[in-house]
Write a structure and sequence with these properties.
4 strands; alpha+beta; 1 helix; 77 residues; two-stranded antiparallel sheet; two-stranded antiparallel ribbon
């Protein structure tokens, strides 16, 4: 299957794709959707705290954005 990422790049995945690669692909896809939504003003009308963070995490720890130490750099709504 070919996946079109928000930045326009294409990635192929198959039954032979490593689990960690799939998780990274899907995590980056979700991250891109959140960043585009923010850029498009989707969150502007929502009530939110001053430091309202976005994030993507895989339940078993194989993917996480942002890196905890980098919170507040590019993840604020």
């Amino acid at each position: 299957m070919e996946v079109l990422l928000p930045d326009g790049k294409k990635r192929k995945i198959s039954g032979e794709t490593e689990f960690e690669d799939f998780v990274a692909l899907f995590g980056d896809l979700l991250k891109g959707v959140l960043l585009k939504a923010r850029a498009d003003g989707v969150f502007k009308s929502l009530p939110k705290a001053d430091k309202c963070h976005m994030g993507v995490e895989e339940q078993e720890g194989h993917y996480g954005w942002p890196v905890y130490e980098d919170r507040g750099k590019d993840d604020l709504v």
